[in-house]
Structures are given as C-alpha cells and as structure tokens.
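Cross-posting from the modeling subforum.

Setting up a comparison between two proteins and wanted a second pair of eyes on the formatting. Protein 1 (sequence, then structure tokens):
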Amino acid sequence: MPFPLSSEQKQTAFWVAVWLGFLFLLVTLGPVLTPFLAAAIIGYALNPGVDRLDRLRFGRFQMPRALSVALVMLVFFAAIIALVLIVLPVLEKEIPLLKAAIPAFLAKLNDLLGPRLHEMGVKVRLDSTGIRRIVSEQMASSGDQIWSSILDSARVGGTAVLGWLAMLALIPVALFYLLLDWHPMLARIAGAVPRRWIGSTLTMAEEADTLLAQYLRGQLLVMLVMAVYYSVGLTIAGFEVALPVGILTGLLIFIPYLGFGLGLLLALMSAMLQFSDWSGLVAVAIIYGSGQIIEGFFLTPRLVGERIGLNPLAVIFALLAFGQLFGFVGVLLALPASALLMVAFRHLRRHYLGSSFYNA
C-alpha cells in the first residue's frame, strides 16, 4: 500500500515537475533561444564595463544606464567591424592574385608528385588542364545527381542563410535589453530560488562569477600572446601581410578551428603569391604548427586552466569531452562550463563528506 504524501512533499513534487517541464520547453525551443543565449554570454562579458560607466558622474549629471549600454555596445561592435576590415582588404588583394598563381603552383605540384603517381600506376596530371578534364568527366558522368544536389542545397542553404541573418539581427536587440535590465533580472532569478537554498545558491553563483572572470582574463591574455607570436613569426619569415594575418589569427583564437583555420588559409595564400619556391609554405607549416602546440598544450592549460582551477590534463579532457557531446559549440564553451561544473562538484563533495552516508 503506497504511503500518503504530506502537503510539503506534494508541493515539492509539483514544483519539481513544473521546473522539469520548463527545462524540457527550453530544450525544445533550443534553436529559437540561440540568439538570446549568445546575447546573454556577450552581456555577461560587457556588463562590468556598463556598470563602470554607470558610476561616472559629471557634476550633477550621472550617466543613464541606457546611454552606458549604447556606448559599450558601440565599442564592442566597432571592434568586430575593425576585425572584418582587417581581413577584407587582405582577401580583396590576394584572391585575384591567387587565381593567377594557381596554374604555376599546380605546375610545381605536378613536377613534384607526377612522377611518383605514375610509378604507383596513377596516370593523372596535376596541372590546370588535367584537373579541368577530371572535373568535366565527373560532371558528365553524374551531371543529373550534381544538379539535383545543387538545387537541394540552394533551397536548404537559402533558408539557413535567412535564419542566420535573422538571428544575427536579433542578437544586438536582445543584448541591449538584457544589459539594460541586467541587475533587476538577476534579482528576479534570485527571488525565484527557494529560501532554504538561497544562501548556498548565492555562494555558488559568486564562486562561479569569480572563476568566469578569471577565465575571461586568461583567455584575453592567450589571445594577446598568440597575436604577437603569429605577427612576429610571419614578419621574421618575410611575409608582407604578417601584421593583419597575425593579429587576426591571435584575436580569433578563442573560436576553436575558425580563427586558426582562417589565419592559416590567409598565410598559405600569401606564401603561394609571395614566394617562388616552397620556403613560404614550409615557414607557414612551422609557424602555425608550433603555434598550435604552444597554444593548446602550454598557454591555454596554464593561463586559462590554472586561473579557473583546472590542471592541464583536465583542460584537454574538457575540450575533447564537450566537443564530443555538443560539437563546435561544446568546444567553444568547454572551459567556462567546466568551471561552473567544478563549483557545483566542490559543493557536492563538501555535502557528501559531511553526510551520514559517508561518516556512518
């Protein structure tokens, strides 16, 4: 015969069910919440700057919160536009030159690999004529499939592009209102926590805030060091676009694969255009290969991992684990999420060591 539930147990079960339903709704609405989540992450990083402007006084005039938010957002998006303006001139200059340099590069590649491929029984020329012939044969043999794939991709891709544009347009709007209402919003969240848990919840939130602030400072230091490293390395190797490519690679290093990949692509294009032999490509391989080792195995574990209390092995495991579970977004958020989990684990361990289950 089941035991009757008390009034307090019924209330607890009801509110647990409500919160589980709320979490399920959030998971279901994941794609819709993406711009709001991005705005919340950016807002967390920008809010200290807004708070500092709020405290400024010019005589009797105090900076309004809305004006502080607008100024901080203006500086933030101006920095993003500046990064774009660093990349676009390089691409605009190098892409046309790259098209002209491709035939000479393919001729070198054919001279280097062609004899070895013929020895292996592969009869193909790696020049522009040979590659054009291979592509035309493939398109002739599977033209209908390629055409249908292109149409399908265009339909899906067009919808995806419109979705991305809508999301990007929504992020600044959500960011503005989140920053404007930041402290009242946090107060409302704290007010929704059951009173018996409010003390431990606020303690965990303060610890998590301290760790995330240390993470941001460590990540900024890694970005600065890598920007200097790539700029100096490419300058020593004699690259004409060393400064913009090096700065871009370093500043975008916080986005796994994208920053490194874009910088590597620009450096390879410069090497093909500027150097008549293979020395440029060898220099790029050495500089970017060493940079990945320095950043992945030394700087990030020490400057970021030690600041949030994670040892280098834990940092590497966190990157691999979150990447496996959540893909690219998981890699991007691996370290701050690990810092939050570590705070929760620390409190759970303290509760476990003080429980009768452990001490009995």
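Protein 2 (same layout):
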Amino acid sequence: MLTILGREGGRFCDGVSRRDFLRIGGLAMGGLAMPQVLRAEAAGLPSRAGAQPVGKSLIMVFLAGGPPHLDMFDLKPDAPAGIRGEFRPIATDVPGLMICEHMPRLARMMGRFALIRSLVGAGGEHSAGQCLTGYKDTISRAQGGRPSLGAVVSRLKGPVQPDIPPFVGLSPRVGHPPWANPGDPGYLGLAHAPFTPFRGEKPAPNQDKSDESSAGLALDERTIVPSRLGGRRALLAQLDGFRRDVDRSETMRSMDAFTQRAFDILASKRIYEALDVSREDPRVRARYGVGDMNNEDDGPPCCMDHFLMARRLVEAGVRVVTIGFGRWDSHFNNFGANAKRIPKLDVALSALIEDLHQRGLDKDVSVVVWGEFGRTPVINKDAGRDHWPAVNFALLAGGGMRTGQVIGSTDKQGAQAKDRPITFQNVFATLYHNLGIDPATAVSDRGGRPMTLLDEKEPIRELV
C-alpha cells in the first residue's frame, strides 16, 4: 500500500497529523490498495487512448423490500375491499392510465415514463441482487457471482475521465445488508466495484448535517462518511493544500501511472463537488425535497438528496449510479406507512425526470425504478401485504426509450401477468442497449471462461 509523507506540522480535518502517512490505499476494497485496483482493472481492459467523451448513463433506483404494485401503479378499484386497499387511483397525462393518489407529480408527467405492469420471474430473496444483475441470487452464486450492471459497464466502458469513477453506489449501510448492495462486481473483480460514498457509520437520529465544524473524511473502503459530509468545505480546502504540497515535491514524479490515477481520484474535487448538493441552485434543490439520511429500521433511508446527487454525478461523467430508497417490506400497516413513503418517491423521482429533461439529458440518461418483488393481492390481518414474487412493476424513463405507454397487464386481482410478461433480463437487455452495449457480449469469469451478459438478450421491442 502506497504512502505519501506530508510536511511536518498542521493537522488534517479528521485530526490526523500531517507528518503521519496519508494512505492512498484508503480507497481500496478488500485490502487492495487503490493503485493495485487500477492495475487489476487495466489488466482486464484493452488499452484506451485518452478519455472518452461523456456518453450514455444509467440511474437505477432500488425500492428495498418489495414495493406494493397494487397500491402504486396497478390499482384495482373494482376488486373486493380485501384486495383493492385504501388508496384511490387518479388520472395521469397518459389517457387511460391511472396511478396512486399519493403520486400527483408523477401523474402529471407519466408521458415521460414507460410502465411495465407484468414484470415476472422474481426470486424470493430479500435482496437487491436480481435488480442489479438480472439473475436470481441462487443462480448468481452458482455461476461464481454474476457482476452487477454497473460493474459490467465499468469493465466494458471504463471511466470517462481518470478521476471520475465509472460506477457509484449511493446506498448506505443498513441493518439488512442485502438491501444495501450497491452492485457487487462478482467475477469481474474488485477493480470494477462501485465507489460507495455512504458506506460509513449510520448517522445519529436528527443529526445536524449542516455543521461545518465536523469536517472529516473516512477514506476506508472507498467511503465518505455521511455524518462528516457537512465538513465538505474544510475538506476540500485541505485537499487543495495537500495537492499543492505534493505537486511542489518530487513525490508525484516517482509514481507510476496507476498510482497517479489513484491520487487523481483521491484528490480531485469533481466527485466530491458532485455529491455536494449545497452547490445546487436552491430552487432546483427545493424541487427534490429535503434529504434524510436516517435509515428506515433495517432498510435504506428515504433520502431525496440522492436523486439530485445522481443527476450531478452523471453530469460529472459517472456512467452508472445506484440508489437504495426506502424500506417497502410492509407486512403490517401497509397503507399508513406508504401514505408517508410514496409521496417522498413522488417528489424526488418527478424532480429527477424534470431535471434531466430540462438539461437535455433525457436521451442519454436511462432511469429504472423497481424492487425485488411485488406484494400479495390479499391484505393480511395486520393491514399489510406479504411477499409476492409472481408479478411486479418496473418504471422506466429517458435513454431515448418510447415512453408514455403501459406494457403488460395483470388479472383482476393483480395476482398474475395477464399478457405480455416481461422478465428482469428483458429489462436489462433494454438498459444495456440504451448504454450502447450488446446484451450478447461475453466477459470472462475468474476461470477465463466467456460468460454472456444475459441469457435473454432481446430488448423490449415496445421501448427501443
């Protein structure tokens, strides 16, 4: 692990003396220093001359726990009370399409979305795995660990700029770890793991994140601790000073290209500035709603700031951003809890789509919103809905897709796909297509065997 010796005197914003070593390997995963990770990446990639222009990108929103399709995008107002639930459907700007009353902003812009009501083939696991790889966890494990879409894009496309990671996961650590998976690299290796800025300690309840006196940065495991992001201004000032000190020394001249790139990622302002939503126009930020980093029990928080960060990250050149939003495992009090949770998604998601369109990014940035499975048509004795892998929904936008349409339908109870069943891999094939990647492409696993990205390689014809 490379170390760089700073000048004597002074202290970093986390209290570490400047005479102590700054470990660039702090951005490592699994014990590998960052330069080692970059060497591993280069070993598996063809050489690329120069930085690539900013191109297609993806924002994936995972609704952990299984969002209730019947209460959000596939309401059954004519079904018996024990099925239809408490929420009313409202009209949208797409003729004949009705969605939940708690999503009035999305209702006014459903013409910018494509809604899949007949998503089938879900696994029964409570994890983000299938939404990140296209494969059930059991199959993925049996095949040596299928890489997430973000890892595949990192492998095939690489970074747009040396100091911008191609893949960023915004999911923080949560009590149920499979819900916080930002996108494992699987057999592609740690070189293609996501940069994960919010994998540090869970913030304390009601923590004041505007406190500039708590400046600090945890560089372990590619981590920026969320409780210390409030000190971003002091942090960036320290990084500026550190870069100037090193640039004046002979240290950088002795580094090889991989170590230089590791330092570029560590010391670049761009990734940190993209995460700093306080730099955004206050009117734009207000549209996204107030961010909240407090986890929902053992699930992700409903942090609207992550949607704004995702837009800022793709503008900075990140190719894939994953978000974990909310805990949707509503075995009890389904309607009370979701009457609070669904409006938050309505605000953040509508702001993101509006923002992408206003900035001319809607053709280049694909957005997908989904969860691991749906929920039971029959409401249980605790006013909740249980797990229902038989059918689910997916909401897609951008990426040059044909929107303003509904694909597939379910039966009268919302229990089974009635027509046009769509699989997770059908969605993945569409997303890869949008990113300029042939779904039939093969990458090598750890044993050197070629593994095609998907078994089902045809994009959804209605969308492309």
